[in-house]
Amino acid sequence: RSSLRFVHLARRRARATDLPPLPFPHRRSLSVMAALLLCASQSSASVDYGDAVAASFGDGSAADDLWFGLATAPAHAENQLNDTWLEFASRGGVHAWRNTPRAAERLHFWTDPEVDIKLAADTGVSVYRLGVDWGRLVPDCSLDRETPCGVQQWEVLDRYIEIIKSVRSHGMRVMLSLFHHSFPRWGVTWGRAETPRGAAAGEMFTHPRSVEHFVAFARDVIERFAPLVDFWVTFNEPVVFSMLTHCMGIWPPGPAVTNPYARLNCMTNPKTGALLAQNNMIRAHRQIYALIRANELAAQLPLAPVGVAHLIMDSRPFAVGFDSASTLFIDLYSKYYFIDQLKETLDFCGINYYGLEIVTGIGPGLAPKEVEYSGSGRGISPTGLVSLLEAYQARYGTDPKARFMRGDGYGFVVTENGIADSQDLLRPAYLLEHLLALRAAQRRGIRVRGYTFWTASDNWEWADGYCPKFGLAAVNRSDPLLRRVPRDSYHLFTKVVRSRRVTVAQRHAAWRRVTTAAANGEMKEVCRSGDALGSLDTPDRWPVLGGTTLPDGRVVDWRYDDAKVESPGAEDTAIVTDFIEHSMALSSATGFDPAAAVVSALAGFGHEFVGRPPPPPTLPGGGGGQDTAAVLASVLDALDAMQRRPLPPPPPPGKGGADMFGHFFKGFADALDGDATAAEPAEPGAARSFWPFEKAGSARAGSSLWLTVERRPEASGDGRRGGLAPLAAAAALACLALMVAVRRRRRSSEGSSEGALL
Q: pTM (2 decimals)?
């Protein structure tokens, strides 16, 4: 009995330390095995893992063997750069900048790039990702200029060529980004006010001539750089750039957008804001792809893969209900739309992945007591990377138009993955667990070709300034030379890259580093503010959670776990994708976008009750106690009745697109203040769910607003909940009606059953 108990205890310890499972020993060897295993269990630090390998990445000779890289970008690293970010920082838009020595000098990458290039080369990586700054090469232009502006500073172009040649001389291939979050100063206006269309409306990539100017710049770069570039990235995180610039206003030029309805209008209305900017970037990418191919053919150069670096997050709702619907909708806009439009001109799909994002209401939230956060305030979730790759594989794997998934395509490349961690407590485990995740993805048949870590040295991190520390090496900013101090994770990364494997011992030691810190009550530095959007001038301190037990009994263990990989929700994806596509088509035809209207209405409700979803509505017949089939039947009956109503008339001339939404948000805001009234339908037969809106004595009186606002002051002290609840319910039903109509059309054409729909 004692021997069996020792074996059982040793097995539990092995599971806790991630040892491979033990086979049940033969009874005659129980006492010997028990003694050996008990010794091992007494101190996990003394376990000798030998050369046991957790993941191997081949010897690098096979075409599909994973390659390793490091990444940087001009706005992060180049000194002597008078860009929009420098202006934005001088106006107070960047945190942890004024309190940082030599902030404007960044990393001296323009005058002394050799420091970071050698730091990268010494790790053994085979790819180095860097960029060229559009504004440095084209300093004098105007978006209104009819003649597109190509490269103007040819000596600057020559300097970039010198830097690229230095990268190649160190034995690394070059991945070049053409746009990495820095629009030239001549494309922005400072000091403008917020509008119902968000920030910087009509500027940067929302300007109709932005495509011509960017393509002219890219043409000159391609013609000179093509023989030296091995991978092209046209745009880095285009969705993030357009959202944070136009819809949130927390990136240059501002101002911060505070109206939640303006944010949602910017996010979902294809005639303005983020979607307009993304559509223009899509047009630019297609033209640049054709230019690269034409140039390579003319010069008889090998074809360099072309892609984008697209940010995806493991998005999770804060609570079931509204947050779940919001997460699904945000996912569809942010994860798939841009790739859907470019899939025919992507040789590789670049993935920037940093971790988990909690969604509450219409934006990000935080759960610091149960999620392990990095220094930049991103939840750590290596398993989520594989779940997302599975979702992309399911969406594009059998799509003949998805070039990157075809036999002649290059597959997936992780163009960025990294963690802000000034103390280097979490980074070793973060690095190894994400590499284990990629190896697991490869075993699942997902063609991941490269892994690019962000980054070699601590640098300027956009509006977060110098607070988050992403570097494998720290930077002594008090030193005029900005000397680098390699962290433990730098040496670990070097060992992994040069050996092309992760060992069991490395994985155990990295996780033990986390759990020991947590057990000792150590605190980590986090730069994210309490609103989950902004940053801090000096970091806050949060407890390390890895290995701790939560009040509900769960253990915080964010290591990669193959059993927790989630299969993609293909049906939900198909329904909401169809909804977005049909909505945008209707918007183009009529000027009214139901997606924008629905999300905006839901946003209004979520803004009032962030993190506190409303109780479910009472269903016909009392609701409570009905079985699932009866509930679904009631919902479908209601939707049927809704679909039989006539559609509302299109907006009157001049009220389409952004103007119409400006009126909508203005009227909606007035309604919340209680000084607006609902009128009868404007014409016979018009749907009573979509009422025109009138405000007595207003210049907008009589303008069409396409959702009912019903006031019920008795529902709450200030009347707001009563006014918003029916609006949210009507919007949700309208959204469901269109989704169900799409699925029914599919069912009738494909012969699927009513049961499948339910």
A: 0.77
